[in-house]
Request: fold
Amino acid sequence: MWFASILLYLTLGQKLPALSNNLAICLTLWICGICFSSLYMQSATYRDSDLTDASVLIRNIYLILSIAAIPELINFVKVVLVCGTSGNLAWDLRLAAIGQGSGFNKPFGGWFVVVWQATLLLEILFFEKKKWWRLAIIAVIFSCFGVVTMSKITFSSMFIFACTILFFKKKITLKHLGIGALCLFSLFFMIQAARAAVEVSNVGGNNFFLNYIVSNLTAFDSLHPCTAEHFGENTFRFVYAVFYDLDLSDIKPINTLLKWTIKPIPTNTYTAMYPFYVDFGIIGLIIFPIIMGCTYGWIYKKADKGNNFYILIYATMVNMLIMQYAADLFFTCFFGNVKLILLLIIPFLEKKYNFLSFNKKTVQQYD
Reply:
């Protein structure tokens, strides 16, 4: 993705200022830190894990909860239809989804979004032709969530989840990947076109590749190192959020939606290096990529051995890796990632320890 971003910059950004040497240094440190630490962790040996099968009971519960949460989507659309002010339904939906629409003061979401993610991952991994309807149901629900929120990242997540799982299962080819990517980008352009009438006038641009891929590089060049008001407020946002919610601190957590910069390209994403560079400068781009690379390498090695639980975890990690050209999803969405991991591990633990099942021995003990 970094290569694609730079290539597109050189191809589409003829009138843009040249990328700085500082960006080249920062990007080199970032990529090397992640790659070398990941390769080091992959070279190590680890004990095999027995979290290979998931409880059907828990999967059924997740699927039922996913269906039960459908009214949340319906109610959201109803409120947008009543409170929307732009005259463009797609743009009203997007504003409401990020908590900036009329009648909305926080992003649309809740417990059901994490349940949908976990259910989708589990059903892709344990797909059976005879029970195809299970995957179909959650895929439709998750797709509706993407349409209702006008979110491109929702659809890209579905695509990345599926491709990663199928890669480890050795059931995907370059042909499948190419066709899927073509369909995905076509969908991106459709969403962009639906929002364009109002969005363009607000931020000043309608070139998809410039706005969403190339702009992040120019935006990073506008940053200044070590300029955070509080120690690590961007990197450790999740810590500030917990302390603030528990009334242990009066420092509000940083908004995950960053401020827009208009020149040279309108954008509010500054690459995944943003929090570490703004908080700690160059040192941050040495330490944190190593931490992330070690995590990626360890999980990949586990997944490569065919362990189903780690395949699911790595599928979520690949999404973070691919999106690093735009923003950090590793630390910024830390608690969201932890919630998803907890939901994913429960079916495997239940299958291993049967803590929700009563076998004959257990029944006899109570007789």
Observations:
- The CA atoms of residues 94 and 150 lie 5 Å apart.
